[in-house]
């Protein structure tokens, strides 16, 4: 990661504690699929140990790995936006331990407490922006004649820590 901030430090203490009360410890063996693109997004994870690869279905080819996520990073953002369908797939690249959250319960907490909901929305929005950029760069690398050479990262967008770098702005 390029920032010391993680999900556990990005939220204010009372918001973090409230969210963590919903956490359930889970583990995945290397090679396990966490979710498939186009399926129902009813949960999300924060990685404790291991690596999760986000991938994109490409007809007639192997899935294109868009990004690898590690400690403290959010796996899944599609749970936050209707129609609640995964936009990418995810696979454990090594044994993974994570905190799992029920999406419906978190969305209900967001609806009950506007300040909490905004804090979550800001972090999820940053993840979406970062993942969109990562997808664009990766697809250019795979399919454009000259790859992504010369493509610059938009100002203020960090490489892998959009969810976690909220405090650094």
Write out key terms for the chains shown.
alpha+beta; 169 residues
Short description:
By secondary structure, the chain is an alpha+beta fold.
Structural description of this entry:
- Helix content is 31%, strand content 23%.
- The protein is an alpha+beta fold.
- A four-stranded antiparallel sheet has the order 1-8-3-6. The protein has a four-stranded antiparallel sheet with strand order 2-7-4-5.
- α3 (103-112) crosses α4.
Please write out the topology:
Layout (H helix, E strand, L loop, with lengths): L6 H4 L2 H8 L3 E5 L4 E3 L7 E7 L2 E5 L7 E6 L4 E2 L13 E4 L3 E7 H10 L1 H30 L26
Antiparallel strand pairs: 1-8, 2-7, 3-6, 3-8, 4-5, 4-7
Helix pairs in contact: 3-4
Give start-end ranges of low-pLDDT stretches: 1-5, 159-169
Straight-line distance between termini: 16 Å
Mean pLDDT across the residues is: 83
Helix content, binned percent: 25-40%
Largest sheet: 4 strands, antiparallel
Helix-strand sequence: HHEEEEEEEEHH
How many β-strand runs? 8
From the helix content, strand content and strand pairing, which structural class follows?
A: alpha+beta
Shape: globular
């Amino acid at each position: 990661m390029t920032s010391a901030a993680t999900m556990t430090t990005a939220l204010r203490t009372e918001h973090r504690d409230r969210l963590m009360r919903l956490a359930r410890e889970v583990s995945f063996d290397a090679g396990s699929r966490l979710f498939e693109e186009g399926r129902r997004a009813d949960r999300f994870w924060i990685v404790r140990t291991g690596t999760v690869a986000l991938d994109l279905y490409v007809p007639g080819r192997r899935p294109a790995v868009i990004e690898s996520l590690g400690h403290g990073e959010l796996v899944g953002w599609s749970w936050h936006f209707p129609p609640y369908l995964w936009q990418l797939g995810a696979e454990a690249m090594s044994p993974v331990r994570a905190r799992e959250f029920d999406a419906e319960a978190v969305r209900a907490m967001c609806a009950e407490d506007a300040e909490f909901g905004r804090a979550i929305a800001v972090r999820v929005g940053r993840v979406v922006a970062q993942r969109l950029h990562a997808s664009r760069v990766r697809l250019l690398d795979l399919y454009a004649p000259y790859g992504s050479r010369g493509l610059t990262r938009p100002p203020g967008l960090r490489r892998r820590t959009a969810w976690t770098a909220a405090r650094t702005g």
